[in-house]
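User: For a benchmark we're assembling, each entry needs the component sequences followed by a predicted structure for the full assembly. Here are entry 17's components. Please fill in the structure.
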Amino acid sequence: MKNPARQPRQPRIRYVTPRLQGSMMLAFAAIIAIGGAIFWERVDSAFRRVFLHAAMRGHYAFDSAYDVVRDLLALHLAGLFVGVFLASSVLALLLVAATRHGIGKAVDSLRASANRDLSTPTGSSPIREFDRFGENIDAARADTLASVLTIRSKAAALAAGEISPEEFRLRWDELKQRIRRIAP
Amino acid sequence: MSGPGAAGNSPLIHRGYVFGLLLRLCLTFAGGVGILSVILYFALSRPFPGDYAGVFHALRNLSPFLRPILAVSVLVYALLACGSTSALCVYILHKVAGPLYRMERVLNQYRSGAPTRTVSFRNDDQIQPLAHAFNLWIGSLRRDRRRWLAMMMDAERHCLQDEATCRAEMEEALRKIAGDMARYR
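Assistant: Structure for entry 17:
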């Protein structure tokens, strides 16, 4: 008998949907890169202006360049943090809203399926991954509906048809097998 | 609560998950900006030369000298922030992407005709109502299937009597099943 405690634990794979997780990573990276570029451009031009102004002013009452630009740098760093955080928060909230919308439609579609509505489409979502998932659900529902409709037409034909008892029994058993294959 | 009813009515994305995501983003960016400020502090805090002319020339020439330092420090910030945000993205989105991936596998399994087990997500996973809705659908299909098979088996019991009664009962059962299936659209 195998001891389950001795079995090596499989590493849990977290990067499962590159299209969703990867695209969000790229979007956050773009925000950070844009924020960094704006910070660099603004701080560089501000430093040039401030250091030139400080050199021309005289009365050098500071020990290092940091003393000259301390407040300015703090302001720009705060701006970088707030800008990047706000933009990322908006992106995160948009993702949450899109998830609620896309998965919500899939849930509604499955609940409708439980009420025997297998043909109303799940509908599209702003995120391709959820759209694809909705299509998968629709395909599963369509397969089920096709199977039910086939069984229904065969049952109706068998109930109405004037066929021999042997043939009837054969088709009856075949129909039973088909019904057993629904949601196995 | 973790009962099936509670799972069905629970929100798709919990508020705590959203707050956790925003808090982690906040900490990540705060850490990045902190590292950037430390780098810039060390780059800018070198003392000026003591004499007046030395300070003047240092201030005049500081901007071109600082330009590459600024660029490298912003690059370090961007790399660190991107790395930690990517890790955060993978970890946080796994709570949505993981269940979605599992559901896709179950759907593929269902479509291939293999036996489908009840879907359940981990406790800390999001989109729990999806599993509940899927189980509800499969449950309703299985109830219908059992009812149809029960009707057929009930009709088969009449075959112990004469052939005509058996055939009539079977045809009646088939009509009922076809009528029942007409509710599917």
